[in-house]
Amino acid sequence: MVKILSYLNNQELVDGIHAAVPGAEVVFINPSEPLAENLEADCLLCVASFLDGVDKVIAATKGLKWIHVFGTGIDGFPLQATGDAILTSARGASAVQVAEWAFTCVLAARKNLPENWISAPSPMWSIADNIGAVAGQTLSILGFGSIGKELAKRALAFDMRVLGMTRQSSVLMDGVEAIDNLETLFAQADHLVLAAPATAETDTIINAKTLNYLKPDAHLVNIARGSLVDENALKQVLDTGKLARASLDAVQTEPLPADHWIYKHEKVFLSPHLAWCDMRVIEAISTSFLDNLVLFAKQEPLNNIVDKEAGY
Question: Which of 19, 88, 196, 272 is the most exposed place for a label (fewest CB within 10 A)?
Answer without folding.
Answer: 19
